[in-house]
Amino acid sequence: MRKLSLLANVILAIAILISGGCASTKTSEGTGEYFDDSWVTTKVKAALFNEPSLKSAEVNVETFKGEVQLSGFVSSEEDIRKAVALAKEVKGVKSVRNDMRVRGR
């Protein structure tokens, strides 16, 4: 019985140590946040892809803790405004950082 209790305590200690490694910090995401951000990135990419005026755009999307960064090239300033507006509408987006450039400038 003592061995079973000792084994249970060891397993509990290991579980606590492992779950501590999943916590987020200012510069890294926890496991749940990573999957949330991946989902937000996917939804933003889909919104941009489904917008007919942005079909030829080369926009990259990255998300960290709900902050979406848009970068790449578009055809006009209007495309930049449209992409930012679409990203802001996606559930889970806390803010949008625009690093897009108009092609040819």
Can you walk through the features of this model?
This protein is an alpha+beta fold. About 50% of the residues lie in helices and about 20% in strands. It is built from 3 helices and 3 strands. The protein has helices at about 1-20, 30-50, 75-90, and strands at about 60-65, 65-75, 95-100. A 3-stranded mixed sheet has the order 1-2-3. It starts with a helix and ends with a strand. The mean pLDDT is about 80.
Secondary-structure blueprint of this entry?
Layout: H1 2-20, H2 31-49, E1 58-64, E2 67-74, H3 77-89, E3 95-102
Largest sheet: 3 strands, mixed
Instruction: State the end-to-end distance.
Output: 75 Å
- N-to-C series of helices and strands: HHEEHE
Could you say which structural class the secondary elements and strand pairing correspond to? alpha+beta
Strand order of the largest sheet: 1-2-3
Q: Which residues sit in consecutive blocks of at least 5 with pLDDT less than 50?
A: none
Helix content: 40-55%
- Globular, elongated, flat, extended or rod-shaped: what is the shape? rod-shaped
The count of DSSP E runs of length 2 or more, i.e. the number of strands, is 3
Average pLDDT: 80
Total of DSSP H or I helical runs spanning 4+ residues: 3
What's the oligomerization state?
Answer: single chain
Return Rg in Å.
Answer: 21 Å
The proportion of strand residues reads 15-25%
